[in-house]
């Protein structure tokens, strides 16, 4: 469904959706008006309303377009990884970069002011995270880097529950949640719980390489 949505957009429509997305990510959703969008994209409001009916419609289109892009990026990242542990390192790097480009209040604003869009996004995120976690666990077990006794279904649900808690500001303060190091700590915690002896040895090697490269930056 998302792929079809992205494929049928004409050039100007795509420009509007992508430009609006950049504005929302940078400044937050609530602070950007339709007048701001038209002015920043150098188009008339008449042109803007040719493609969207109101701001809620624009936000919905931007969220769905962004989710499609993120899904495509994740698929490429997963496809290029050498093993299950490398896959999670690549996903961690991708998510950290995405967080740097995102206004910290976006998720809160979506949930409070655009509940229908938030419900759609939450449902898709749940499916994506559970499926990716399950696939990663099965791959890691087959490759011998994860323990053979890992309960794939239980851990998939547990990982998603942790994801939800990480994005609940009543549980995790925003100052912590928006820190990329928090994501790294979460996925390292997860890996140490499921890794086999072989996997732990590989993980320690990867962490040493990562820490070394971080110190040099």
Characterise this structure:
This protein is mostly helical. Residues 1-7 have low confidence and may be disordered. α5 (55-80) runs antiparallel to α6 (84-100). The longest helix is centred in the middle third of the chain and has 29 residues, at 115-143. It folds into 2 domains: 1-80, Orthogonal Bundle (Arc Repressor Mutant, subunit A); 82-217, Tetracycline Repressor, domain 2 (Orthogonal Bundle). The protein is built from 12 helices and no strands. Keywords: DNA-binding.
Relevant terms:
217 residues, mainly alpha, Arc Repressor Mutant, subunit A, Tetracycline Repressor, domain 2, 2 domains, 12 helices, 79% helix, elongated, disordered N terminus
């Amino acid at each position: 469904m998302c792929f079809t949505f992205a494929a049928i957009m004409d050039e100007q429509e795509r420009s509007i959706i992508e430009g609006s997305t950049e504005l929302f990510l940078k400044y937050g959703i609530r602070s950007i008006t339709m007048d701001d969008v038209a002015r920043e994209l150098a188009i008339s409001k008449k042109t803007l309303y040719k493609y969207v009916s109101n701001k809620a419609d624009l936000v919905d289109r931007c969220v769905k377009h962004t989710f499609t892009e993120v899904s495509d990026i994740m698929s490429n990242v997963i496809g290029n990884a050498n093993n299950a542990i490398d896959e999670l390192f690549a996903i961690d790097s991708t998510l950290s970069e995405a967080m740097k480009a995102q206004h910290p209040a976006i998720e809160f604003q979506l949930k409070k002011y655009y509940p229908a869009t938030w419900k759609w996004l939450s449902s898709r995120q749940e499916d994506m995270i559970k499926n990716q976690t399950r696939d990663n666990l099965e791959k890691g077990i087959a490759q011998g880097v994860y323990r053979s006794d890992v309960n794939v279904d239980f851990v998939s649900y547990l990982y998603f529950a942790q994801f939800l808690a990480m994005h609940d500001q009543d549980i995790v303060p925003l100052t912590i949640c928006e820190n990329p190091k928090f994501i790294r700590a979460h996925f390292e915690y997860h890996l140490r719980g499921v890794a086999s002896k072989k996997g732990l040895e590989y993980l320690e090697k990867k962490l040493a390489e990562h820490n070394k490269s971080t110190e040099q930056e």
